[in-house]
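Hello forum,

I keep getting stuck at the same step: I have a sequence, I want structure tokens, and every attempt I make locally crashes halfway through. Rather than fight my setup again tonight, could one of you with a working pipeline run this one for me? It's a single chain of 261 residues.
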Amino acid sequence: MESKNPVFSRQSQGHQQGWGSPTPTPDQLQGMYDRPSYAPPAQRTMTIDDVVVRGFITLGTLIVSAAVAWTLNLGTAALAVGVIVGLVLGLIISFKQSTNPALILGYSVAYGVAIGVVSHIYNDLYHGIVFQAVVGTALAFAAMLIVYSLRIIRVTPKFTRFVVAAGIGLMGLMLVNIVASFFIADGIGIRSGGALAYVFSIAAILVGCFFLLLDFDSVEQGVRAGAPEKYSWLMAFGLTVTLVWIYLEILRFLSYFTSND
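Reply #2:
Ran it on my machine without issues. Output:
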């Protein structure tokens, strides 16, 4: 029986002509009702500016914490707590690839306290050495940025494997030196101030500079791949860790040549 309703009449004609759609089932109607009627906003991708801003925040937090620890002249207890907390947070961030700002800034605060105490101790022994180490770290950063920008050293998979292996090797030697120091006065001699210590410190500074190249490449690859904006926090964390490494190694290296009179 043909309906007199003009809407149903047009629908019937549409079916007959092949362009109409069948009447939806109750389940289909419920699915259409449950479906959101709006499109989710597009996620913003990471930019170089994002990394720069997060880098300033992360490094700035570390510097402020170091300045507070220096001013208050906190002792070795604060140094130990800062190193332990910073190490734990750093490992969590690294292994989980966390982009949580609270964890990253917590690392900056903890290690900032540790660096402030260490810097104060060194400056008491070798007046002016901290300023020299800060300048040296800034120059190393600028030099590696130029090297990377001009592609003087290209970050290839082979280069990355070499740098990571070198970093692991250095960490292993430092661990062996700590263990050996319980039985031998100067351990294996890589921190005693002799010729071997000079070579080790130079190697550690160079490896730190090479890690900066890896950090720059990670930022560039992340921007090119359209990584979410939140990953700029992780990139800033990586840069901060590397700069801390370079600063501490330059500080120790300079102490070998600075009089404590």
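Residues 1-22 have pLDDT under 50 and may be disordered. If your local run keeps crashing, start a new thread with the error log.
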